[in-house]
Amino acid sequence: LGRDPLTGNRRRMSRTVPAKSGREARMRAHVLAARAGKPLGGESLTYLMYSELWLADADIRAKTREDYDATLRNHILPYFGGMKVADIAPLAVKQWLGWLKREGRSPHVAAKAFRIFRASLNDAVKPYGLVERSPTEPVAPPKVPAREMDALTPDEAMAYLALFAGHRYEIAVTLALTCGLRRSEIAALDRQSLRGGIIPIRRGLHRSKGGGTHFEPPKSKRSRREVRPPDFVAERWPKGFGPLFPDASGGYTNPCSIQRAYERHIRPTVGGKKIERVRYVPLRDLRHSAATLLLSMGTSMEEVRDILGHEDLRTTQTFYDKSNRSDNPKAAGQMQALFGGQKWPSPQDSAGTAGGS
Prior knowledge:
- Helices cover 42% and strands 5% of the residues.
- The chain has helices at 20-35, 47-57, 62-80, 90-102, 107-125, 154-163, 170-179, 183-187, 231-235, 255-266, 286-296, 301-308, 329-339, and strands at residues 199-201, 204-207, 213-216, 225-227, 269-270, 273-274.
- The strands form 3 sheets. The chain has a two-stranded antiparallel sheet with strand order 1-4. Strands 2-3 form a two-stranded antiparallel sheet.
- β5 and β6 (273-274) form a beta hairpin.
């Protein structure tokens, strides 16, 4: 649809849909029919109504549901919302991909939208029985350029640990850089999470739609794992109970707040200008530095896969094995050997800077 020549705003396709109460009544009827194993009647069901049914019934995590909902609203429903499910053809799917490109959507966004659209229409075949074959089946997905991971060198990693020594989020940065923990996994930790030198990873803290946070279990079996941090991490672990990184009210700190504090410490504003103390790498990418460092020290791909909690074998380019434990003494020892010789300030010495920025 392009952009409005006067305002420059992106034009969006608008369609007249039945009142919400009418849609909800029909949706309830479709849900009951689907659960009773009866055909849903794709001849009259629009993709808008079907997507609401599909998303409501999908067995996915809350964070994933929010993500799917946003992708549907922004990239799929403006094109297919008013179209009957039974009328969606492979040609329409190809034309939609062309529309996404003309609208300036990145290959990554287009590929993600295609995956969600394809998943919804695969379910339209089975279990819902709306169509005999998914119209996305003969369509090639958009190609996405491979993302190059921005990993720190050993010297840069050492500089990061030195920069955050004594900072409120020193342990967060250290866990990401030595154990490959995700930001959400770090934010969900308690002081009592470290037991016998091992940290069980059983949940993540995620930002909720509209504000606030919520816990969710790991997204895959391999993400439910146990990690063994190097000795110098365990030595600095605070005692007691409660969140490892409490907010002002004593609750768990939003992972986005941890990210902002992390970035401010690396890129502080001095004299009205931002300076960069070390080469900036996002907090979420420090886990990739951990993998790179471990591989460079001879840790096997299988061990790195277990440490990071990867489910897809392509992520670490290796085959699965039966182990889902990553309390790996060898890997912990390698990180200890690499970083443990540093002269870290003691917890007492760094108490004055523990609040950080």
